[in-house]
Structure formats: structure tokens, C-alpha cells
Amino acid sequence: MKDQKDRALGYGRPPKSTQFKPGKSGNPRGRPRGSGNLANDLAAELGELITVREGGHYRRVSKQRALVKSLLAKALQGDVRATTAVLALYARIISESPDDDSTPILDDELLIIRRFAPRLVKSLEKRGGRRED
Is 70 strand, coil or helix? Predict the structure, then answer.
């Protein structure tokens, strides 16, 4: 009877002959070396340099910096979504900043952001924009 239980087949009980042998991996090749994850791939891509024209001069800047410059340019032209994105990024950076010798955010700056945020939300609602919390 005991031999019959050991040899029982079914869900979760494959035949002994097809089970992995001790010391052998079920995934012998594993994940290939150098295959990165999304965070590393994104960081590498944002770190690459591209050429941009600023004020008639060509400069090489990282893609990340170019994105930030583009976003700020749109915000300064009055694009409400871009302004919202800039303020959200800035607020996130403020809240995640380490407590080291970096320049502290002044209370006046935080007060300005807190006063401006409700106005921004109202203007988004008037334009039919979606409110993102």
C-alpha cells in the first residue's frame, strides 16, 4: 500500500522519472547575463546624450535633461498639464530629498506651491481637464 501512495500520479505528483534530479536546476540556463530590468534600461536611455539647439547654439545634453527643458518650456508657455507635471515632480523631489547638506526648501517656496495648487486644479476643471490626485 505504501508503494502505491509513493507512485500515485496526479496534480502536483509527476512520475519519478520526470522529476528534477537532486542538484539539477529546472531552469539550467537561467536569466542571461546582461539582460537588464526596466529601471536600468530607462536610466541608461535617459542618460544618453543628444544634440539640442538652444538660442542658436548646439549643445549635447542627456535625454533626461532635454525632457525637463521641454516640459518647463511648455509650462512657461501656459500649458496647464505641463505646469501640473512640473509641480508634481518638484513636490515629489522635495518630499524624497535626503536629510544631508543639500539646499533646504524655504518655507516661502512651499507656501507658494500650496497656494498655487488649488488655483491650478480649478483652472484644469474649467478647461475640462482631468483631475489627478
Answer: helix
